[in-house]
Design brief:
The protein is an alpha/beta fold and 165 residues long. The chain has one domain (4-137): Rossmann fold, CATH 3.40.50.1970. It contains six helices and five strands, in the order βαβαβαβαβαα. It has helices at residues 16-28, 44-54, 72-78, 97-104, 120-134, 138-163; strands at residues 4-10, 32-37, 61-67, 84-89, 113-114. A five-stranded parallel sheet has the order 2-1-3-4-5, sandwiched between helices. α2 (44-54) crosses α3 (72-78) and α5 (120-134) crosses α6. The longest helix is centred in the C-terminal third of the chain and has 26 residues, at 138-163.
Length: 165
Amino acid sequence: MSDIKVGIVMGSDSDWPLVEKACKTLEKFGVGYETRVISAHRTPEEAIEYSRSAEGRSLKVIIAAAGGAAHLAGVLAAGTVLPVIGIPVVGGALNGLDALYATVQMPSGVPVATVALGSAGPVNAALLAVQILGTADEALREKFHAHKEELKAKVAAANSKINEK
């Protein structure tokens, strides 16, 4: 795997099964990453320090997964100029709706790209990170082109399978 370009932060270790999907997606593209458990509410100083130091540590994108109040992505975005991608985590009394709202409803000037609730979210977060990195890395962009061709082939195979009946 290449040097570390993506920082993946989760609010709790219970988010790992979801976050692992993002890690595996980044691995497919050969993109280096690091993972941390940092809470926006229980360790806010650590969250701010992580985001402030990210650029100096040569990170290019941060992915943040959190449930409930889900302020992690916003706190990280407040402390960096790097793109931040938020993954709202399903769970709790509102089944992730609170996490979705907290992640997507950022004030003007503090953008957070937000992906879907559920298992598509971490995969899409990683794919968006790859696309962002691909703007400055032609080889990575070519890998993404190949990924798109794989998606097309899967749809074509599904279509053929359905129409054989």
